[in-house]
Amino acid sequence: MLFGYVRVSTRTQNPSLQIDALLKEGVPEKNIYRDVSSGAKAERYDLDLMISRLREGDTLIVWKLDRIARSISHLLKLVDQFEKIGIKFKSINDPFVDTTSAHGKFVVTLFGAVAQLERDIIIERTTAGLKSARRRGVQLGRKKGLGKEARQKSILAASYYKENNLPIIDIMKLVGIKSKPTLYKYLAIQGRRNCKECEIIFWDQEQGLESAFCKKHLKKKK
Hints:
It is a single chain. This protein is α/β, with parallel strands linked by helices. The protein has two domains: 2-114, Resolvase, N-terminal catalytic domain (Rossmann fold); 148-221, no CATH class. Helices cover 48% and strands 12% of the residues. It has eight helices and six strands. It has helices at residues 16-24, 45-53, 72-84, 102-135, 148-164, 168-175, 180-189, 215-221, and strands spanning 2-8, 32-36, 59-62, 88-91, 192-194, 201-203.
């Protein structure tokens, strides 16, 4: 049985050209499914409905490839899906894509090889770029530090902690922090330290977390 699929980007566009071409190919009008959707959108109700009704031995016809596929990878995914259930596929204006013929099947296979080659090249370039960046000492990943809102929270949290001597749970509620590790991270950024010798809490943004010493033990170190 023949099926046809039509897509226009907006409701003001006329699908008659596509429909007439499908009718000329012998597709019954009741078997023509239509969507109004931009090429970038993945949601296509009638396409999904039509695919659910296709059966082994059916043939799906479209006016042009861009009416059904959003990209080469999407086209290959659809063709693979059709092949698994025994559906033939052809495009009126792209006769090189026609899985009803041996030549058309070869072209689709070639598309798949080209798409895989493109993916491999992208991966290779990305890997080479990362290695080059590391050799130059470029820091990869998210930048360290806090955003504006987080930094304001850290200042406020440190203020409550130092001046009001509030319990940790109360500070979290007042500042809008959901976890203790986040709160302690904010406090550390604002200078909260534990002396490596006596473990007393003091404030000093200049010293690192792992090797911080209170004034008493800092003098001894010197």
